[in-house]
Write a structure and sequence with these properties.
By secondary structure, this protein is α/β, with parallel strands linked by helices. The chain contains 13 helices and 13 strands. The relative contact order is 0.11. The structure holds guanosine-5'-monophosphate and manganese (II) ion.
Length: about 325
């Protein structure tokens, strides 16, 4: 993977561009992609954002979101655009298999692949150019850095600012996590100077749910949360029936893992959801417990030091058993 700075001088020549990100995109994936989209169209590039899967409805306020294609439901159109693409920006993921059914297409197309990502241990041989920095708060911050470093600060308009703000704000837990550096605050100050209305974005992202989501949370916290005080760990295991009963939609489970993490003394919180086709897990930690390594070792996953995820093909009960074995094996680290 060559440094991303080598493409700066090519930005002004219009091209067929695709921007993609990880499956079930969060606000950082969608926000960094649409921020980049709003930047690139100003040069006359033909840009298409393609999501590997569907996404949460609370992202649909983002400027440009109506043009995003869902690879799973618009495969023919998306495939033909991918075949013609000259550049494919790959945002907010480190390994191609995070794009699910798009993985073989990304492997076979002739386009130049450009990575911008902040996850640990990227598969660098899969990308032609790029930048990977696990110390960055978010991919949105990295897209901002890219725009500034390439010399186009004046192209950060309100639309770019709104999308990038959403990514940085959500990936830093509203500017709480240790990744919130002084440069993050400087970036936000710059976006404010360019017209960003930040309160509306918080409302769009956090005050936009249906009642059923909270009934679902109530049920889950009452009936599905297990605390292992001996290991300073907590687990929420969600059977598929619960998702059906409460009509849970993509994005509704985001943030659930933070509830057990707020319990005094808990250092590791996990949510394992039976999505039918796979068991999707989310891990969060406080302090010195490395969930990236934990997710890689036991759950075919990865991510960041304090936030990671994974997926398993075994039945839910088996994955829960695996978690219980894993916390026993990590007892020392969880108690230090
Ligand atoms: P979440 O729990 O919100 O799904 O994910 C937490 C973090 O771990 C995110 O940065 C996400 O991109 C990453 N992550 C989630 N699932 C996986 C996975 O299956 N593999 C890898 N490598 N990273 C993941
Ligand atoms: Mn991210």
């Amino acid at each position: 993977m060559k440094p991303i700075s080598e493409i700066y001088h090519l930005l002004e020549k219009p091209k067929q561009v695709v921007i993609t990100f990880h499956q079930k995109p969060d606000a950082d994936a969608m926000g960094s992609a649409l921020g980049l989209y709003q930047f690139l169209i100003q040069f006359g590039h033909v840009v298409t954002v393609i999501s590997p899967t569907n996404w949460a409805a609370f992202l649909n306020w983002m400027p440009g979101s109506k043009t995003v294609l869902d690879f799973e439901t618009q495969m023919e159109k998306a495939n033909s655009i991918l075949q013609k693409a000259e550049w494919i920006f790959c945002l907010d993921f480190n390994v191609l298999n995070r794009t699910k059914k798009m993985e073989p297409v990304l492997q076979s197309v002739s386009a130049i692949k450009i990575l911008i990502d902040h996850h640990e241990q990227p598969q660098t041989d899969a990308f032609n150019y790029g930048i990977s920095n696990a110390n960055k708060s978010s991919t949105a911050e990295m897209v901002y850095d890219f725009i500034i470093a390439a010399g186009y600060a004046e192209k950060i308009n309100e639309a770019v600012a709104e999308c990038l703000y959403a990514g940085v704000m959500t990936d830093t837990g509203s500017f709480r996590f240790s990744s919130t550096s002084s440069s993050v605050h400087r970036m936000i100050a710059e976006l404010k100077d360019r017209g960003l209305q930040h309160s509306q974005i918080h409302e769009n992202l956090f005050d936009n749910f249906l009642e059923t989501r909270f009934r679902f949370f109530g049920n889950i916290l009452l009936n599905r949360m297990e605390i292992f005080y001996e290991y300073n760990a907590a687990l929420i295991a969600i059977p598929q029936a619960d998702l059906i009963r409460y009509n849970v939609k993509t994005g509704d489970t985001e943030g659930l893992v933070n509830f057990p993490l707020s319990i005094k003394g808990i250092k590791l919180a996990a949510v394992i959801i039976d999505r039918g086709d796979e068991r999707k897990s989310s891990f969060r930690s406080k302090g010195g417990f490395d969930v990236n390594t934990f997710a890689r070792k036991y759950f075919n996953g990865g991510g960041h030091f304090n936030a990671a995820g994974g997926r398993n093909n075994e039945p839910l009960e088996e994955v829960v058993k695996k978690f219980k074995i894993a916390i026993k094996e990590n007892k020392e680290q969880l108690n230090s």
